[in-house]
Amino acid sequence: MPGHFDFLHVKKNSAGSPNELSLDVLDAARSQLDGNKSRRSRGALSAGPNQGSYHGVGGSSTLSAVPEVERRKKARRANAVRLGVLVGLLLVVAGGAIGYYGWTNYQARVDYESRFDFMLNHLSNIDAQIVEIDQIMSGSVVATGADTRSRLEREIPEMLKKLEASREEAQSLESRATRDEDEVALSRVSATIDGREDMLIAASSSLKLVDTLENDSSEATKLWARVIEADQMAREATSAANKAASEEAIESAKQQTQQALAEFSEAKELLAGANSDLSRADFSKQQRYLGKRIESLEHAVATADALLAGDKDKASRENDAYNEADKDAASLAEELPLTLENQVRSLFTDELASLRADYFEARDRVSEADADIREYAGR
Predict the structure, then answer these.
(1) Between 27 and 6, where is the model more confident?
(2) Does 178 map to a domain?
(3) Which of the residue ranges 60-74, 142-156, 245-259 would you say has the lowest mean pLDDT?
(4) Band of the pLDDT at 53, cuts 50, 70, 90?
(5) 145 & 204 share domain
(6) Tens digit of each residue's pLDDT (9 = 90 or more) over 82-129
(7) The pTM is what?
(8) Within-domain flag for 24
(9) Is the pLDDT of residue 359 over 80?
C-alpha cells in the first residue's frame, strides 16, 4: 500500500524503467524542499516530529538547541544541590538552637528544683527548734522554767530571721518557676512561712507574758508577806497591851502597835499603787481588810494614850471601838485568799488562752500548707 513518503523511494538499479522518477518529479521534490528550508529559516514552526515546538528566531534548529538544554539541566541540578545544602544547614542551625534551648531549660529546671529542695531543708532545720516550743505550747507555758523561757526568748528572733531568709529565697524562685504547679507550691511555701512566724510570735508573747506573770506574782507575794508580818506584829502588840500593868509596859505596847500600824499603812499604799499589771487586779477585799486593821490599831494607840493620860472613860470608849473594828477585820479576813498569787495569775489567764489559740490556729495553717508542699515535692 502506497505511503505518504513513497515519492522519496528510489528503486535500486533502476535504468529508466517506468518505475524511475522523472526529473520533473525530482525537481518538484527539490523545489518543495527548498521552500520548506526558506520558511524554516524565518523562524517558523518545524513540520517534523517536533511540530509545535518553538526553536527561536534566526534559523535555530532542533539539533543546535541540545547543548543549551543540557546546560540548563546542569544549572537546575546545581541549584537543587545548593538548595539542599542550604536547607541542611538551616536544619542543623535550627536543631542546634532547639538543642541549646532544651539544654538551657533543663539546666534552669535542675537549678530551680535544687534551690527549692534547699529551701525546704532550711525550713526543716528551723522546725527542729520549733519542736521544743510546740511541746511547751501544747503543755503548760506557765510551768516552763525561767532559764528555758529566757533561752527560747533569745532563740526565737534568730528563728524569725531564718524564716525571713526562706521567704526571700521563695520570692527569688518565683521568677524561675516554669510550671503552674511551681507557682502554687511557692504560694504554699509563703503560707507555711507566715504560719511559722505567727506560731513563733504567739509563743514569744506567751513566754514574755509568763515572765510578767511571775514577776507580778513575786511582787504580790512579797507584798502580802508584809501584811502577814504586820498582822503578827499587831497580835504581839495587843498581847503586850493586855498584859501591861505599868506605864512602861503600856508605852512599850503602844510602840509595838504603832510599828504594826505603820506596816499595814505602807502595805495598803503599796497595794493601791502596784504596777500597771497588778493594778488591773481586784484587790478591793484586801483593801477593806487593811483599812479595818489600820482603824483598829489606831483605836489601840488611842486607848494607850488615854490610859497614860489617866482618862479611863476615853480609854474604855477607844478600846470598845478597837474591838469593833478588829471584829470587822476578822470577818473580812475570812473572805480573803491565803495569797495574792491566784488573783495575779487570773489576770493573765484569758490573755494566755488567747495567745494559745492564736498559736494553734497558725499551726493548723502550717500543717495544711506543709501537706500541699509534700505532695508537690513528692515527699
Answers:
(1) 27
(2) yes
(3) 60-74
(4) very low
(5) yes
(6) 666 555 555 544 455 455 456 676 776 777 778 888 888 888 888 888
(7) 0.64
(8) no
(9) yes
Q: Are residues 348 and 362 in the same domain?
A: no
Look at 365 and 19; give whichever has higher pLDDT: 365
Residue 156 sits in which domain range?
112-210+357-377
Residue 157 belongs to some domain of the structure: yes
Q: Is residue 156 part of a domain?
A: yes
**Can you read off the three cell numbers belonging to residue 32?**
518543495
Do 187 and 227 belong together in one domain? no
Side chain identity, residue 205: S
Identify the pLDDT of residue 80.
61
Judge whether 271 and 226 are in contact, CB under 8 Å.
no
Number of domains in the chain: 2
156, 225: one domain: no
Give the mean pLDDT of the chain: 78
Q: Same structural domain for residues 249 and 368?
A: no
